[in-house]
C-alpha cells in the first residue's frame, strides 16, 4: 500500500484509488497526439458566433455607411446585460447627427490626436446630449486616418483614473464622419468621461487594441 | 512601450477580480503578442501560475482559455482518439472545450483541479458520443478504438488513467520518483527513504505533495457534471 508502515500515515480511500488507477496505466495511456489546429479555430469561431448572436447592434444611419462587419465587440460585465435588455427594447438606436428640440448639451470635448500611441491622425469633437430617450454621445471626426492597417475604428468611454474602457461600438473606416450612439444607462459618464477612438484590426480580440487615435475628456 | 502599457491597462480594466487582473497583466507581458497579433516585442515576464489561469478562465478571459487549451488539448484529444477514433476526435475535443467554457462558472477550485474537471466533462461527452455511435455506426480510419459499447466504466477508467499519467509527468522529479516507488514497488516510506537516501521526513512530505496534486485531479474529475 502507499503507506503500509505503521509509522506512516494511513492511506485514505482516495490514495487507494489513485494507486489502483496508477497501477493500470499503460504506455499507451501516456502517449498523446496533438489536436489539429482546426480544433482551436473551431472553438474561437463558435464563441464568436455566439457573441455575435447576443451582442447589441449599433446602427450608424448614414447614407454613406457600409454595413457593420462581423468583428465582435462587447460591453463588459453588467453593462452588457443592461445594454442587451435595452437593445431588445429597441432603445439602442443610432441616428444621424443634429439634435432636434428637447435636447440638452450636458458636456463636450475636442478630440485630439493621442501622440503617445502614434496610432493615427485626425481631429474631432464629442458632445454628450440628453434627449428624451436617453443620453447620446455625438462624435464628429475629421480626416481621421490610422497609421497602420485598421479594419475598423472603435468608440470607447474610458475611466479617467486607469483607462478602463467601455465599448460603445465600432465605426466604419470611410464611413460617416458623425456617429450618434445612446450611452448605456449603466455607464456613468462622470465615471467614464474620456472619449476614445481606437484603431482595431479584425483579430478576434475584442479588448481595446491600445492603439488610440483620438481622445478627449468630456467636461 | 507606451502602447504596450496601455494594452495592459485595458486588459486589466476588463477583469473583475484581482487574480484575474494579475492574469491579464502576466498574459499581456508574456504572449499577448502572438495571440492578439501584436507585433511589438515584449520582454520575458513573470511565470503564470495555475491559480492565475483558473481565475482568468472562470472570469471568461479568452487568453486564459487559450492557455488552458494549450495545456490540455493534447490530453483531451488523445482521450477522444482512443475512445472514438481519429475521425471524430477533433470534433468532440472542440465540443468538450466549448462545454467547459460555457459551464466555467460551475467549476469550483475548492473541489479539485481544472484539468481533472475538464476530463470529467470529456468523459460525459465521450459517453454521449459513444452512445450516439452505437445508434449510428461511425466509420473510422481503421485505428484501434476501445470497445466501449454501453460500457461507461471503461470510458471512466481510461479517462482517469490518461489524466493521472499526464499528472504524474507534471509532478517534480524527486516527488514523482517517490510516488512511483510507493505505487509500483509497494515500498513503505521507510524503505523509500533508504532507496533514495533521503530523510524520512523529506520522503513523507514529497509523497504527500505529489499525492495531493494527483488527488486534486481525481477530485476535479469526480466533481464534473453533465454539461
Describe the 3D structure.
The complex is a heterodimer of chains A (219) and B (227). Chain A has 219 residues and is of the alpha+beta class. Helices cover 21% and strands 31% of the residues of chain A. Chain A is built from 4 helices and 8 strands. Chain A is elongated and about 75 Å long. Chain B is 72% helix and 0% strand. The longest helix of chain B has 24 residues, at 200-223. Chain B has helices at 2-14, 18-30, 32-35, 50-58, 62-84, 86-102, 114-135, 152-170, 173-184, 189-196, 200-223. Chain B has 227 residues and is mostly helical. Mean pLDDT of chain B is 79; it is low at 1-17, 29-45 and 136-142. Chains A and B meet through helix 1, helix 2 and helix 3 of A and helix 1, helix 5, helix 6, helix 8 and helix 9 of B.
Shape of chain B: globular
State the total count of DSSP E strands of chain B: 0
Strand content of chain B: under 5%
Rounded radius of gyration of chain A (Å): 25 Å
- Rg of chain B, please? 20 Å
Spans of chain B with pLDDT under 50 lasting ≥5 residues? 1-17, 29-45, 136-142
Q: Greatest contact pair?
A: A-B, 56 and 60 residues
Distance between the ends of chain B:
43 Å
